[in-house]
Design goal:
Distance between the termini: 13 Å
Strand content: under 5%
Helix content: over 70%
Structural class: mainly alpha
Order of helices and strands: HHHHH
Largest sheet: none
Number of strands: 0
Shape: elongated
Number of helices: 5
Radius of gyration: 16 Å
Length: 136
Amino acid sequence: MNRALVRQMARFVLVGVLCLLLQIVLYALLRIGLSALTANFGALTVCTVVNTEANRRFTFTADQNSFARTQLQGLLVFAAYYLLTSGALLLLQAVVATPSRRMELAVLAVSSAVGTVGRFVVLRLWVFRRRVLTSR
């Protein structure tokens, strides 16, 4: 496997783990007064902006002029990611009448991990495509 790709994957995982922890904390705090889907939307929106910017600077080292374009594309990726994690929460609610907060957090963690794999591929091949093609 290409060394540059391995480095990107390692950095992406590091950023992803930190953002997942932030997402879980934000979700747990927002869930106190909001529905599961609303808390997920709020936590995921904040984390998407943070994650996209961290990946732009640290993982893919995209040029500094691409901030607005990168965030817009990141928000489009967010829409798919939100549908995945919200779908997982809705499925949990359909299967378990009153799921515990821990169960909701576990479902969010698993669905987020699955979505992260797709997110890496989309970021690498679409959002940060030019930089990836020119890196060594």
